[in-house]
């Protein structure tokens, strides 16, 4: 695996062979960080959380691009040790921490983050539960990245959680999306679907039923 951008661009990172370990592809990482650069600009002042870190690819990309702080959470001891070794080799410096812990237990005492990566083993219930728990630790203008099998989270789930899908894409059997709090400035940058655009145009074209006095 290689880091796509930033100070560590093109640096190879060893990935252990482990059942269920599925590093986010270079293509997806490049797309997602292009989105974030467009939405928030520099990552320099951001606090980042990489839950279910695995190889740590997403958090490594954020750190490479200058994120102020990055926390990786991985309960598998071997994977966590491998990530620590990678950070030591890269001379990552302060503000880069690997936690060998269960993601949900970690969140019980976590602080606030501007960007959270949620990429658990592919089970729909786990994605939803993780996003719900992350909300208590998300900055007002923060973003949540979610990676899922086949399909993004259902719209009714996002509505219930008070979230807006800002960007989404797919690559093979993987669906990925960026979410923001409804009503936030970041949410206002959401790209509307064709159906949403059509409905908005229809609403604007409809007569108000009122006449000028």
From TrEMBL:
Q: Provide this UniProt record's keywords sorted from A to Z.
A: Methyltransferase, Transferase
- Give GO terms for biological process: rRNA methylation
Top-level taxon: Bacteria
Alphabetical list of CDD domains matching this protein = AdoMet_MTases
Q: Name one GO molecular function term.
A: methyltransferase activity
Q: Which Pfam families match?
A: Cons_hypoth95
UniProt cross-references to SUPFAM superfamilies, sorted A to Z: S-adenosyl-L-methionine-dependent methyltransferases
Its recorded name reads: Methyltransferase
Q: What is the lineage of its organism?
A: Bacteria, Pseudomonadati, Pseudomonadota, Betaproteobacteria, Burkholderiales
């Amino acid at each position: 695996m290689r880091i796509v951008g930033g100070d560590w661009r093109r640096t190879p990172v060893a990935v252990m062979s482990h059942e269920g370990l599925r590093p986010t592809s270079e293509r997806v990482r490049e797309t997602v960080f292009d989105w974030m650069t467009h939405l928030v600009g520099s990552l320099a002042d951001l606090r980042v959380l990489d839950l279910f870190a695995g190889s740590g690819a997403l958090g490594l990309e954020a750190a490479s691009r200058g994120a102020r702080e990055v926390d990786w959470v991985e309960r598998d001891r071997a994977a966590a040790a491998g990530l620590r070794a990678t950070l030591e080799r890269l001379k990552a410096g302060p503000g880069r921490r690997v936690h060998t812990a269960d993601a949900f237990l970690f969140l019980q005492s976590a602080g606030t983050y501007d960007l959270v990566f949620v990429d658990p083993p592919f089970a729909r219930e786990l994605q939803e539960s993780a996003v719900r728990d992350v909300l208590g630790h998300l900055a007002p203008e923060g973003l949540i990245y979610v990676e899922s099998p086949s399909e993004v989270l259902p719209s009714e789930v996002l509505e219930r959680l008070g979230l807006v899908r800002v960007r989404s894409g797919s690559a093979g059997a993987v669906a990925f999306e960026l979410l923001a709090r409804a009503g936030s400035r970041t949410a206002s940058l959401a790209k509307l679907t064709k159906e949403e655009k059509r409905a908005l145009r229809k609403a604007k074209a409809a007569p108000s039923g009122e006449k000028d006095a």
